Amino acid sequence: MKQFIKSFCVAAVAVGISASASAGNITVKGSDTLLILAQKWAENYMGSHADVKISVTGGGTGTGFAALQNQTTDLCDASRKAKAAEIANCIKAFNARPTEYKVALDGLSVYVNPESPLKELTVAQVGDIFTGKTKNWKEVGGPDAPITLYSRENSSGTYEFFKEHVLKGHDFAASAQTMPGTAAIVQAVLKDKYGIGYGGAAYGGGTKQLSIKKDDTSPAIDPTENNVESGTYPIWRYLYVYVNPALDKGDIAAYLNWIRSDDGQKYVKEVGYFPLPKNLRN
Predict the structure, then answer these.
(1) pLDDT digits (tens, 9 = 90+) for 209-236
(2) In CATH, what class is 109-230?
(3) What is the pTM of this model?
(4) How does DSSP assign 86-139, residue by residue?
(5) Which of 33, 138, 171, 176 has its CA 20 to 30 A from that of 252?
(6) What is the CATH number of domain 2-106+238-280?
């Protein structure tokens, strides 16, 4: 029964819960990229803090920021930095800029089917594929077959990060199939030998994660911990948690401190992302 209650608290939808929730109850909403890590943190923290209940849901980074400014979540998980408009909305809602915490590192990966002979692409080649400029695998050294694109929904922080840093602001091809989460992208690519998708490093199990070159003259780099932490992998990012500063006290502050501590950061690697550098931890 206790295990059922814990599982329910992790998966519960944080609907109508005020950000001034009673002591010991913490709601988390936002990035689907962070979802598996946020659930892992919540489960382990509740395991050693019986008086704290943590509810975790995804929905996308944009959804998390909307809930934060509507004060229906305590913490917003984000796979990108807050936009100026989101910060302005928070200031309008609770008269303060939300506090930003870096909580992990991610090498945003490009997934292809394990049967694909392709091993590497440049950032520009990936951009051309997802904007629809490149439509056949033979144009980038693959087989003579049309490329099938799998992408995230536009409420996703990963979608926006990829559009900004890989597509250079250009729109995704109209043929790109929108998937409800990174796990769905991975499943689609595993079933489609001509498919390609993108997402957090923690989700790529079973797929082939391509090595990425910054440009034609650069070496191909794998999304490993050392390469992401050093910044040599071209598509890396921080993952974030945002909070109303008025709530950053008591149980919420203690939880945020634990997430960023050595104890909390060990779960980052366990899930498949990369821990914060030592100088960014508590």
Answers:
(1) 999 999 999 999 999 999 999 999 999 9
(2) alpha beta
(3) 0.86
(4) HHHHHHHHHSSPPEEEEEEEEE-EEEE-TT----EEEHHHHHHHHHTS--BGGG
(5) 33
(6) 3.40.190.10
